[in-house]
Write a structure and sequence with these properties.
Elements: H1 5-11, H2 15-27, E1 43-52, E2 58-67, E3 70-75, E4 85-88, E5 93-96, E6 98-103, H3 132-138, E7 142-147, E8 155-163, E9 181-185, H4 208-237, H5 253-259, E10 264-269, H6 272-285, E11 291-294, H7 302-307, E12 311-314, H8 332-338, E13 343-345, H9 356-365, H10 371-376, H11 380-386, E14 403-406, E15 417-422, E16 425-429, H12 430-456, H13 488-496
Parallel strand pairs: 1-4, 1-5, 6-7, 9-10, 10-11, 11-12, 12-13
Antiparallel strand pairs: 1-2, 2-3, 5-14, 7-8, 8-9, 14-15, 15-16
Helix pairs in contact: 2-12, 4-5, 4-6
């Protein structure tokens, strides 16, 4: 009996079948290798498709040749080699795999909220390759995601970009060569506006000015830390002996990487004033903010964002879910785009990620973006923001074969993903998924029945041990009662008688 990796992941959310899975696991040593990567021929040809390249227009009745995980040829006259696996995409649309610039899937935990600066923690250490959201987002055409720490801290944990290689171990998820990042947060979340605990003192900071001071203070320390190591190295290179190196500080090292341009800053934000505040702090210390996340009032300061070369990763039309989101408008993405800002639409939600193509399409209605501009919001633009555009984001020769195939125009509300490929491997196949559902349901039912039977089986009772009779303490003989002494009156009466 083999338990499918999809059922395994779903069982983790269904307590009724979770126990039988582990009961079976004890008897099935081969299950450790059950989640094997899908078979991948070295050569694949996708034929007869409408190819939306994003970079150089649309190719009707086009084909894509994939060799060893890379796009080898794109056009209308591509010939399939004899050994190639052919995918007939007649009447279907192929786009670059969708890239989600703000995701929290595939992680065991999100926030280390006990301190205001948690730059020493990293999402890479808590990747969960069995998270079913990886598979569900693949079914929405997502191939890469920026896994962010939460927004409980002014300076949060380290982030990383992953590919949604469902079935692979956690060590195979990170996007090779992608620049690491770190999460910042401004506004209500890091000042804990809605998170006070009764009976516990409030964590600093409690105001927006405290958030600014926390970031400024941390970078002041990081600057001094960098200088101390620079001085040590300079003296060491000069041949000075018996030097004691500065003490390592894991909290400050990622911030030094920010100062050196080796780590991207992705900052959660909403209001225009806090956006400008962080830009001032960044200028003061000489680092760049790579993206503002959410950035719902970005349309108010779009010129400043463009002038600083900062990307904006926003929602399509979320608004008013808390006070600082009241000025959000659905025209935000389009207005920032028109002012020269590189804009992406993100999910911040595993469910939202399954239809990011439709979220991007909303910018055509709200702001009048063209079809190509809207499609860039979830393909090329997030790739630019994450520094992975040399590898993904468009359909061009030499790039990774990360692709999504739809049955309709991907910006249509009727579009459904048919296949999703990463590195030339088919990680999601809708027809295969549908065909396997009955078997998965059968497995689930069998495991459920096994659990029910185990619950009904009476527990074996151990025979009660006979306890030796308890010895009562021996009763001591009571002393004889003392003879009552006659009172003076009784003695007098007796003598009178």
């Amino acid at each position: 009996m083999r338990i499918s990796p999809i059922l395994k992941a779903r069982c983790a959310r269904t307590p009724l079948v979770y126990l039988p899975y582990f009961l079976c696991l004890l008897n099935l040593p081969s299950l450790a290798n059950a989640a094997t990567p899908p078979d991948s021929p070295s050569v694949i040809v996708i034929q007869n498709a409408t190819i939306l390249t994003v970079s150089h227009g649309t190719i009707e009745h086009g084909s894509i040749l994939i060799k060893d995980g890379k796009i080898a040829e794109v056009g209308q006259s591509v010939k399939a080699p004899k050994d190639a696996q052919v995918i007939d995409a007649s009447g279907q649309f192929v786009i670059p795999g969708i890239i989600d610039c703000h995701s929290h899937i595939a992680a065991e935990s999100i926030n280390e909220g006990s301190v205001s600066v948690s730059s020493m923690v990293t999402m890479e250490e808590v990747l969960d390759s069995d998270d079913i959201d990886i598979y569900l987002d693949l079914a929405g055409g997502v191939t890469s995601a920026n896994i962010l720490h939460g927004s409980a801290n002014s300076i949060g944990g380290q982030t990383l970009v992953i590919k949604l290689r469902w079935g692979q171990p956690a060590s195979k998820l990170p996007f090779e060569g992608a620049m690491p990042g770190i999460k910042f947060a401004l506004g209500e979340n890091p000042k804990r506006s809605n998170f006070s605990m009764p009976g516990q003192p409030r964590r600093y900071p409690a105001t927006r000015m405290g958030v600014e001071e926390t970031i400024r203070g941390a970078f002041s320390e990081a600057r001094d830390y960098k200088k101390s190591w620079g001085d040590y190295k300079k003296r060491s290179d000069a041949g000075e002996k018996n030097l004691i190196p500065p003490r390592r500080d894991l909290r400050l090292e990622p911030l030094v990487e920010v100062l050196e341009g080796k780590r991207y800053v992705h900052s959660h934000c909403y209001r225009e004033d806090e956006i400008l505040m962080l830009l001032r702090v960044a200028k003061e210390f000489g680092f760049k903010v790579r993206t503002f996340q959410h950035v719902l009032e970005g349309y108010k300061v779009a010129d400043e964002l463009a002038a600083n070369g900062v990307g904006a990763s926003t929602f399509s039309d979320w608004w008013a879910y808390k006070v600082e989101a009241y000025d959000a408008i659905p025209y935000n993405a389009a207005l920032m785009t028109r002012r020269g800002v590189v804009v992406s639409i993100n999910s911040d939600s595993a469910e939202e990620a399954t239809h990011l193509n439709q979220e991007a399409a909303k910018s055509m209605k709200y702001g009048g973006l063209s079809h190509d501009e809207a499609l860039k919001l979830v393909t090329l633009n997030p790739a630019l923001q994450l520094g992975i555009d040399k590898r993904v984001g468009t359909i061009d020769v030499g790039k990774d074969a990360d692709l999504a195939i739809y049955n309709h125009d991907p910006l249509s509300a009727y579009a459904v993903v048919q296949r999703t490929l990463i590195d030339g491997r088919v990680y999601f196949d809708r027809q295969r998924d549908i065909a396997g559902r009955a078997e998965i349901e059968k497995e689930k039912k069998a495991l459920t029945e096994k659990l029910k039977a185990a619950e009904k089986k009476p527990e074996e009772k151990k025979p009660e041990e006979k306890k030796p009779p308890e010895k009562k303490p021996e009763e001591k003989a009571k002393p004889p009662a003392p003879t009552p002494t006659p009172t003076a009156v009784e003695a007098h009466v007796g003598s009178a008688q």
